Automatic annotation (TrEMBL):
One Pfam family from the record: Peptidase_C48
Organism: Mystacornis crossleyi
Domain (Ubiquitin-like protease family profile) ranges: 33-197
The family this protein is said to belong to: Belongs to the peptidase C48 family.
UniProt entry tagged with the keyword Repeat: no
Protein name in the entry: SENP2 protease
Amino acid sequence: SPWNPLFQAMESEISAAFDSGEPEDILSRAFKLTVTREDICTLQPLGWLNDRIMNFYMGLLVERSKKEGYPAVYAFNTFFYSKLSSTSHRGVKKWTKGVDIFEHDVILVPIHLKIHWTLLVVDIREKTIKYFDSLGQKGDHICKTVLKYLEEESKEKRNIELTASEWTLHSMGTEEIPQQNNGSDCGVFVCKFADFISRDKPISFTPEHMPYFRRKMVWEIIHQQLL
């Protein structure tokens, strides 16, 4: 209830994050990232989420996945896919230095397409690559690019050949996942798709949840803790 004192304390904290102080004030630091008030302000209604907010939130999801009972999650940062698509595996080989991504259950790849955020999800357990776009566009070529990356990464890191034919690639249809109803919520959709998937939960939110999710994310980023 809105009268719950905890809720009120959180609300006033969220409002203060938006309204008081200077744009360059640092509000959170983790995952080798620094989040300023200016970054946090992209979470205001109809704001465009920037790379820092996206990468910080992915960091929170990975952190949570280390707890008992969650699938093991690996998240690439938002610059990975554009680098991969322009240079192939060679250009991103060092990004996984000291990490075997195949030891994880789920790999999250947030993708920035010029002015739109989408999400690609690799489920190692199921051998699936799924593409989530809240504007309903298909990403079959993106799925193929990432499968090719996985083949090369597997060969290089583990000396194991992946059998491409065993993998299922799928762009989620508009009837399968919720769709945004404005031009600015794509980043929040990507974060919440990733949140639900990294808990093995069915995606059950709607565009109506977006204003609430934005405010919740402010609190979570400042406290470095998912509610």
